[in-house]
Amino acid sequence: MSVRAGIVVTGTEVLTGRVLDRNGPWLSEQLLALGADPIATAVVGDRPDDILRALRFLAAEGCELICTSGGLGPTADDLTAAVVGEFQGRAPVLDEALEGRIAEILRPLMSRWPDLDPAAVLASNRKQAVVPEGAEILEPVGTAPGLVVTPAAPGASTPTVVVLPGPPRELQPMWAAAIMNSPALQAVLRDAREYRRDMLRLYGIPESEIAATLRAAEAEGIALGGLEITTCLRRGEVEVVTRYEPGEATAYEQFAAFVRARHPTTLFSDDGSTVDEQVFALLRGDASGPTETIAVAESCTGGLLGARLTERPGSSQFVRGGLVVYSDEAKAALAGVDRQLIERVGAVSEEVAAALADGARAALGADVGVGVTGIAGPGGATQGKPVGLVWLSVSHRDGRRLTRSVTLPGTRADIRDRATTVALHLVRRLLSSSDPG
Amino acid sequence: MSVRAGIVVTGTEVLTGRVLDRNGPWLSEQLLALGADPIATAVVGDRPDDILRALRFLAAEGCELICTSGGLGPTADDLTAAVVGEFQGRAPVLDEALEGRIAEILRPLMSRWPDLDPAAVLASNRKQAVVPEGAEILEPVGTAPGLVVTPAAPGASTPTVVVLPGPPRELQPMWAAAIMNSPALQAVLRDAREYRRDMLRLYGIPESEIAATLRAAEAEGIALGGLEITTCLRRGEVEVVTRYEPGEATAYEQFAAFVRARHPTTLFSDDGSTVDEQVFALLRGDASGPTETIAVAESCTGGLLGARLTERPGSSQFVRGGLVVYSDEAKAALAGVDRQLIERVGAVSEEVAAALADGARAALGADVGVGVTGIAGPGGATQGKPVGLVWLSVSHRDGRRLTRSVTLPGTRADIRDRATTVALHLVRRLLSSSDPG
């Protein structure tokens, strides 16, 4: 029997779009990994009625477990603990021991903000020690404690509500601690069903082609009925995610083999790895070869490619650095691109992309150089060079080179982000093939 | 009378956290701007039952308007149109004229992907022309049409459901077109109440201090009862957003003046402008002075600061470029930082930050240089230099300079992102003061 789970994300700043919610997706992943079945995430503002209604909706939908995020702060609009108490029929009480522990946490913080009125800070945070009577306390990671709250009504055991703070860096360790330590949370997860989840990633193919592949797989007699397959486009790649019970593993293997055979060049990952991870491994030189150092020279992406290459710890082993050559002067001065070349063929061109790749390599003494130059828009299009046109080149010290152009759709931000994906795939192709042609 | 509105975001990839939802927040902002009252966003997977239940939840909560995003694609898991039809009591019918228009849209797309089987593509996309009988069609922006669907039941006029595609670049123009052209959507929005929304942004202050300010304002007799005030921490800044009806404008002005007087140095925006926009205006030299060109040399942020400075179109007027000096070799070779200095004081130091700022300025011939060097973690901490320590320096051709260190909390990604915010505030302070001291 599967455990239905729901998530309530609170916060007017999230509901109204000023802040992107990272907690709903993260909690959903965690619940899936534990074998629960997340059925919905409700995002509501800081109004207590809306929080209460969201809890009742998820309870009515059969959720045995509900996680909330946010609304545990010191301000008056932080009301989640009180609302969950009301929902479960538990009155608010001041937990004095908890208040003391929060005060201990605040002491060093207050020394960082010497102008604060200590009494005001302690009053703000006494509120955080008011909890539903009988709730399990999850110790604060920041200053806000979390809660695990079961119904007060005799005989009712579900839904169990896990109340977590809004900042992801507090929520995530607190959830991990709750899994380890909370008897009430452990009790509700005891019946969770085991699921597997596997992902195929393809690049350079439209999503509609995957729909055709699914139909072709069924026509070949592969039993897809027990596989919950979803596809989505993400940063220019198609992701095919399949969730299945262990008994369906053979069907999944047949399906994955079918996709592999039908899309041999566009399927680049069948083990969950991202192109970022593959490029990281290729540059670091894991099993596949020696360490290859890399340098970039980027124009329209303005630093995004350098930032993406250094997202992971350990990238300093192979990332030499980069040149953000937003102006033509910078292209010439930093990457050594011939000014006359730029005047002749334009800054967004095959020749300049190649010169940027070589210039980055030379300026930083790297094995691999990447050049990116394009028109991110919304202005800047010229005859024959539309917004979204990006030229990319990757060159290696040993003479190998891949250069291509793409015309990317979307907004300025989409085009800039997507261009970094194209660049990573070029690096992957260059480094994973001895003759990339 | 206010119009209650709800949003249903569909997509297992969103529910399970592989893709961040941008549509719920965006639609919520749009609804607020139109005077509607968004009460909840429900995120559900691609399972028809869950979509249907989310629609029923929002209808039961009194929503007169529901917007959905996603699930209009060509694959078999794209079911939103059918579910909304069922919810409103309207049978699915093939709209042959629409099918023809979609085929027209697909023609150039198919020429870009010459290996596709045309029959498979057309079959995939015939599905997109099956719509609830009697629904208003919103013309495709990509290949998927949207819908406005009212209840079929006689006498029922609400909820009206607006069905929009998942990709933001399709959803956003389609919504704008629906506002202009859909009689059913216009009818439900006719009763929307007028709201105002204003924002104060503060930097260098903890969120709890704002809670104390709210209490102090009330103690001074400022009537906050008609103001819906929410605060949140975002990228290291505190945002105070207030929503109010026009009759409460005086109360809001009193409140804003109170915050201004109490937090004169930390309040940096009371007109909705972001620090990015303020820095953009200061560099471009709007009313405030001449254009100031800028160049950056960044280590731990790996390109993020350059990327952030070039997010807006028009930044090429003043962004000369940047140096991603991830390795010490790059700090020396590109930014001219003395190797012996690095050995003596360490790469993460006041001196190296200052040398990076000057080196960026010199290498790119800019008026303003920014240097960022820090320990993004999780490794790399040394005695006296914890993870999160970042030194930043901003220097001007005319000799002005601001240098500071911060110790930022959070993950590697948090630290890198937050460091760019600190850098922008330093640039703002340097350029908005003749004697930053």
Please give a structural write-up.
- Chain A is globular and about 80 Å long.
- In chain A, the strands form 4 sheets. Chain A has a 6-stranded mixed β-sheet, with helices on both faces. A 5-stranded mixed β-sheet of chain A has the order 14-13-15-16-17.
- The first copy, chain A, folds into 3 domains: 4-189, MoaB/Mog-like domain (Molybdenum Cofactor Biosythetic Enzyme, Chain A, 3-Layer(aba) Sandwich); 196-269, Alpha-Beta Plaits (2-Layer Sandwich); 275-432, Maf protein, CATH 3.90.950.20.
- Chain A has helices at 12-15, 23-33, 48-60, 80-88, 96-112, 118-126, 168-181, 183-189, 207-219, 249-262, 275-284, 304-309, 328-335, 339-345, 350-364, 412-432; strands at 4-10, 37-44, 65-69, 92-94, 130-132, 136-138, 146-149, 160-164, 196-203, 228-234, 237-244, 267-269, 294-298, 319-324, 368-374, 389-396, 401-407.
- The model of chain A has no long low-confidence stretch (mean pLDDT 91).
- The first copy, chain A, has 437 residues and is of the alpha/beta class.
- The first copy, chain A, contains 16 helices and 17 strands.
- Chains A and B meet through helix 1, helix 2, strand 2, helix 3 and helix 6 of A and helix 1, helix 2, strand 2, helix 3 and helix 6 of B.
